[in-house]
Q: What sequence folds into this?
């Protein structure tokens, strides 16, 4: 439950920090269901600037988004790091102020984007009205972890230990936020409100509160706050805040899964959401069946990148899952399939592009891009690389319609009977699902005889 006072404070701060004037062209990138949209809308309208709304198709296309920014002369944009990583920076000359928010901003992204514009790293949970701290990223060589900066006006930040006591400089603690931007609490949830919004022992104002963010940070000796990670199981992945326990619960509701655990870990220089599971009778479960089960209950951005079956979960001395030991288990993203080598020049080129984007070797021409862990941000990378290699503009729908190398190659070369091939692939997939369902039914019958 947020207040107009908090919104007014946000507008006043971001107007100055982002250099927004009546001549600014501001990009409306965030979904209306995301708190960042409040910043984009009201900092524009209150200042008499122009707010540019774009369609979902444009947002999901790296090339179209670049064209939109250039054609509309967008001067201010808030773009999450995961998207900044996959679109080219040298083609966005109108962009004067770039804001990175929602995820950890890396030094690689700073090197790519900081030259020639004001670059701001912003941080803030919804509970503090979108933004709590900002950091103006310098234009010179930057070779450190990117700080989240210092508190905006009207807000105060505290780094505390488990006893709500301030920690020394360069010592890790939990970030607490106070100020006019704090929400009144959670609607119809007084217990969660009491847990997250606590009395502020550092304030003399009656009723003043602290918001417990759950984020681990430290105060650098240069005076800025550095974000280190989450205390609980909440992670930032693909631009979204995800509760790993939600995915775990859904997986454990699968009839063949006994226990599941989720980890966000680095694999082949890329963050991967990994699902570890114990199955009944220790049998491998077809990855497609697990993916389809998750998609029946959760949005696509919560889909694990890799599924790993384990015989048992490693435990700590007190009986909890040992996540450090779990993270050391070797990952294998290969699924059972008939491997088919690329035949034509186009197929070979597409295989190389897929392997580069997905960071996977030995991709078969009958592999499904999304079954290999591909997602919407990877699609943006594909669009850019296909445009460079084949000089062909593609939509997001094209990648969903032709998800295998063989189908996509035929589509690119205007091959004959492409629709018939799609139907044939769909028929094979449906037949395979039917056979797997029959096998599962037989297994259940054997386990539960009448």
A:
């Amino acid at each position: 439950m947020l207040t107009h006072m908090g919104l007014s404070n946000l507008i006043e701060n971001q107007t100055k920090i982002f250099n927004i004037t009546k001549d600014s062209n501001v990009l409306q990138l965030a979904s209306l269901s995301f708190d960042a949209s409040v910043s984009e809308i009201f900092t524009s309208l209150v200042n008499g600037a122009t707010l540019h709304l774009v369609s979902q198709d444009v947002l999901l296309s790296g090339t179209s988004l670049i064209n939109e920014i250039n054609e509309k002369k967008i001067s201010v944009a808030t773009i999450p790091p995961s998207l900044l990583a996959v679109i080219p920076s040298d083609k966005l000359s109108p962009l004067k102020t770039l804001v990175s928010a929602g995820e950890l901003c890396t030094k690689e992204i700073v090197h790519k984007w900081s030259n020639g514009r004001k670059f701001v790293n912003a941080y803030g949970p919804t509970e503090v009205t979108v933004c709590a701290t900002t950091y103006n990223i310098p234009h010179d060589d930057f070779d450190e972890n990117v700080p989240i900066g210092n508190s905006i006006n009207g807000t105060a930040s505290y780094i505390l230990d488990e006893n709500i006591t301030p920690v020394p400089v360069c010592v890790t603690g939990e970030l607490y936020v106070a100020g006019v931007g704090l929400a009144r609490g959670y609607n119809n949830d007084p217990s969660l409100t009491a847990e997250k919004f606590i009395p502020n022992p550092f304030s003399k104002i009656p009723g003043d509160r602290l918001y417990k963010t759950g984020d681990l940070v430290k105060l650098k000796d240069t005076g800025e706050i550095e974000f280190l990670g989450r205390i609980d199981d909440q992670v930032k992945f693909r631009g979204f805040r995800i509760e790993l326990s939600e995915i775990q619960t859904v997986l454990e509701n699968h009839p063949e899964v006994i226990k599941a655990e989720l980890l966000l870990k680095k694999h082949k220089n890329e963050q991967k959401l990994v699902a570890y599971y114990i199955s009944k009778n220790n049998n491998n479960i077809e990855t497609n069946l697990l993916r389809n089960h998750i998609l029946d209950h959760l949005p696509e951005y919560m889909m694990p990148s890799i599924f790993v079956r384990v015989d048992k979960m490693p435990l700590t001395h007190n009986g909890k899952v040992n996540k450090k030991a779990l993270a050391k288990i070797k990952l294998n993203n290969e699924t059972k399939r008939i491997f088919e080598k690329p035949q034509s020049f186009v197929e070979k080129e597409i295989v190389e592009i897929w392997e580069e984007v997905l960071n996977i070797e030995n991709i078969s021409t009958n592999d499904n891009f999304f079954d290999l862990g591909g997602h919407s941000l990877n699609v943006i990378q594909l669009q850019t690389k296909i445009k460079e290699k084949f000089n062909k503009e593609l939509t997001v729908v094209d990648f969903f319609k032709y998800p295998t190398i063989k189908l996509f190659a035929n589509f690119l070369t205007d091959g004959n009977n492409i629709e018939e091939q799609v139907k044939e692939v769909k028929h094979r997939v449906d037949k395979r699902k039917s056979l797997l369902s029959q096998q599962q039914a037989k297994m259940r019958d054997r386990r539960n005889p009448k």
Q: What stands out?
A: The first strand starts at residue 25 and ends at 28.
